[in-house]
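Attaching the record inline, Q. Sequence:
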Amino acid sequence: MPRLGVLGTLVWDTIHGPDGGDVVEDWGGVAYCLAAWSAVAPPGWSLVPVIKVGADLSESAGQFLGTVGGISSLEFVRSVPEANNRVSLFYHDRSRRCEKLTGGVPGWTAAEIERVALSCDALYVNFISGWELDLEAAHALATRFEGPTWCDVHSLILGVGDGGVREPRPLRDQAAWLEAFDVVQVNEDEIEMLSPAGGGGSRVDRMRGLLADGPGAVFLTRGSAGAEWVIRPDSRWPEPIGGATAGSAPVETTAPPGATDPTGCGDVWGITCFASLLAGAGAAEAVRKANRLAAATAARQGTTGLSEQLMEVAREADSER
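Structure, as predicted:
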């Protein structure tokens, strides 16, 4: 049975919505990817979480992982003495927020990631803290791992300022980072950060610019506008998407009126798209399904009950193919 390793950080979220309503506390970060797994798992695939958890929340994290279906092994779930990462999210509106981070769960070393690589057939890397891997570990992954890899850039380009406030930072050694992965996921803010200053050009031009750094494909999420992608014809990603060049797909099913929380939407989007590609879907089909599940995620806050909702949305999407 092939195994997908999902590498990221479990974060305890405190979400303050833009309307001044209730404050929601729940597991976040890579928890959104894990919650979506039951809905998006390719036939025959199992899940291997690659996660370090602070000792202060290890018991609660274990309880959460017990609710995730399709896990074949917890061998790479490690309790560490540092305080677990906690994030307070203060939304100004559906797209703008202030994010404050506390805690200090460390990343994975090159030696540790080599063990992971030997145990998995594909690897999904979600930079939630931004230091899940350092460049040495990413290079070890690129040179030792033969399966397909997906990277959600996310917090790789976020630093930690005064009071734990996350703030954009340039990505040093950008080409070395991006060439370590087969597929790179970015949003519109992130592609602005990664594109040359004053470079201009269309979104497709900017995505092609990232391809020049080495990945085989770039997927750009655009919130309610859907997503776009560019794939190198010589990508080592297996068919059927290997011969594609560029495309886009709008959101065909939007979140219900009043949905105000985009937390975790990109995480659900990424795991859904990658899982669909692993199952043999083409890029357009994978993106359309990812759009639908991400939109459904915006209709609720937190990860409690999210898996069941996404399973229903995924069944509807599959029945309409």
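The first strand starts at residue 3 and ends at 7. The chain is about 30% helix and 25% strand.

More tomorrow.
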